[in-house]
Design brief:
alpha+beta; 5 helices; about 50% helix
Amino acid sequence: MGILNRSLLFVYTLFFGVLCAGIVALCLHIVPERVVLNEYDYLANQWQTGAVAGVFLLVSIHLLLCSLSGSRSKEINAKELLVVQGTTGQVNVSLAAIRDMAERLSASVHGVRMAKAKALVERRKDEGDFLKLDIRLEIGQERGIAAISDDVRTQVGRYVTQAAGIDNVELAVSVQGIASGVAVKKRRIR
């Protein structure tokens, strides 16, 4: 749940907490009934009351949809972990770590100017967790597209299966742009 939804839930809960405290005070006769009826008559004739009620109705619907959509999602977002079976037990691997390594390995291939990767996990009933890697490249003109794509697929595939120990992988490589000119490597200052 994001910060906006948490803020809405806080205000929503606070409002209904105060409302429930008022109902308890009314039932215990702490507040006289005629005062409540007088305030009710006044509020029922104001358009602002309807507007506030409409806003709370929209917030209710929004929070309800947020609570229902989280349980139906079959994909895990990039902040979650992938469970890998090691020789001594299970190991949790961050999808962000896999994504970063895929970007670094792809960028190290000769001819790749820029690489962006997306990693997500699908939970499949028959096969278990299934890793999907989508790598988008910007390449130069010094090598062919097929050769660069094959090198990227080989390097990343080797890392994922051997180093990370993940067998269920779907790897997609796409070229998003072809840069013109010769790549100029900048010197690092140490």
